[in-house]
Amino acid sequence: MSQPTVSSYNSMIGGYLKDGQVEESLSLIKKFIFSNRKPDGFTLSMMLKLSNGRISMPRDFGKQVHGQILKSNIEGDDVLFTALVDWYTKNGKVYYARKVFDKLFEKNVQCSTAMISGYMNQGCFENAEEIFRKTINKDVVVFNAMIEGYSKSIETAKRSLEVYIEMQQLNFRPTISTFASVIGACSVLSAFEIGHQIQSQLMKTSFFTDVRLGSALIDMYSKCGRTEEARRIFDHMHNKNVFSWTSMIDGYGKNGEPNEALYLFDKMRRENRVEPNHVTFLGALSACGHAGLVSEGWEVFNSMKTDYMLKPRMEHYACMVDLLGRSGSLHEALEFIKGMPEKPNSDVWAALLGASRLHDNAEMAGLAANEIFKLDTAERPGAYVALSNTLASTGKWDGVTGVRELMKERGVSKGTGYSWVGTESGLCGFHVGQNI
Hints:
CATH superfamily of the largest domain: Tetratricopeptide repeat domain
CATH architecture of the largest domain: Alpha Horseshoe
Order of helices and strands: HHHHHHHHHHHHHHHHHHHHHHHHEE
CATH topology of the largest domain: Serine Threonine Protein Phosphatase 5, Tetratricopeptide repeat
Low-confidence stretches: none
Strand content: under 5%
Largest sheet: 2 strands, antiparallel
Radius of gyration: 27 Å
Strand order of the largest sheet: 1-2
Distance between the termini: 76 Å
Number of domains: 4
């Protein structure tokens, strides 16, 4: 075409974008801009979608597009404003997203969903509820946004289950995303009975063979302490990926079955040729730590680099320090820390502090605690308490008084300790002296 129109540009850009050819779409957009043609709302909405992808864009790209809309007096439509709200929320600019959202004469469900997701990611649950309640024509996607947002913390996971029930009362059928989120809520709450009911419901759908849901069920049953049920799900999965294996390995490790965890870890690599990721190695190392399997732990840790070219992260180093420390090798743990290629963070020193307290080694506890104090103070009040308790157990009461005075001086306070007990509706927390 000698002179392509705006519509023809839009068709080509949209076609490339829909087909996943992001580079080609971006190249055509640049050509369009340099041709001095005026973009319309559809062009700008595609530019916003493109900037939310894997292409690196300026941090204020959405604001630039927003400014272009205002300067050009482009007539806003649902697609454009939804794309703008979506860009702002995905880039953590919820305030600006709400400004655009409130100017919409008619709030469509896609725009409401983007706004809810943005609020959920910021932890603004009341604002998300407000948008949700005002959304008249709800669909399954907006329900999924609410269920997923609430499912991530113990304080809100119960509400996730309530929205799940409300969704079905309105005759919306759960999707794979719905099941994944609500099973995740059961994991957070350790709500075995509810999770079992959801599994029964899931088995009546065609989603039951989905590997993502199988992995979620394994994780849920493991966190409820039901490794037998988790293993039954694992064994009956037609397809397993690294997440399925990792969930089962981690489940065994955290439920005091390290030999089963290491057996699966070995089987995963040697028989099934599935490459473990960082989380898999963390689960295997944690299992070794709980069982005091030092030689096995070293083998797992070293294989990260030698066999899979994976660079250990801070959590892996912390796991190794915990493993060495728990076994009584405190000086070896300290030498391990000194030999780290990166500066150890507070988690690494906290692992050494915990092990020092376990073995009543006040000198090592003091060393680890001082390193934690250098890194942060108020963020780890438990370090002060652990050091104080270690000094007390060795009869160094002057040191205990000194730590308590230091806490007062630095304004560090330890929050109330809670115990958790499983009930029919999930985990219930309480503290000493509380009436239940």
